[in-house]
Amino acid sequence: MTRLAGTPISGLQASSETLLALATGLARFGPAEGSNDWLVPFAWLCTEVAAYIATPMSNGLRIEPLASFLDRMRADVVRIGANAVLGPLPSVPDALTPPISLQPWTGEIIDVEVIRTAPHAAGLLFTGSEGANLLIANDPLGPGVVLTSESVEIAELLTDGERVELADYLRRAVTR
What we know:
Blueprint: E1 2-3, E2 12-13, H1 16-25, E3 28-31, E4 39-40, E5 43-46, E6 51-57, E7 60-65, H2 66-81, E8 103-104, E9 109-118, E10 121-128, E11 133-138, E12 145-148, H3 151-157, E13 162-165, H4 166-175
Parallel strand pairs: 1-13, 2-7
Antiparallel strand pairs: 3-5, 3-8, 4-12, 5-6, 6-7, 9-10, 9-13, 10-11, 11-12
């Protein structure tokens, strides 16, 4: 994988506040309940004070606070429901709670990189002080989120592509 200093990587949709909160305080993570551990419809990333949802996009990954995710879903239900021909759409819950099955992040986060693993796949790679890693990215082959802490799987995904330190990514995003 090519390490690029300050080169923008498109395909990651997340505010700088969200990225900084996760980079400095990731506490728990995991797939949507009922999903396998590798390819999931969405993933939870939580700090001690906030929950974030990672969802796939056709050209990358979106990470947003839980409240923003729910607001976006409600707006989509209204927008799509106005044109629904098969009947009413399901409602969006007023609140969601992260499942108790989320895995704890152990140790201190020592590095976060923004990655692009394919033309339409982007995400984050967290590296921890105790050798822990976590990769979260959209699946370039379909609608799903890749979520793994397995070093062999991470190495395979990072074989070709590019990555940039989060600080450089944020610096470039602010100056664009």
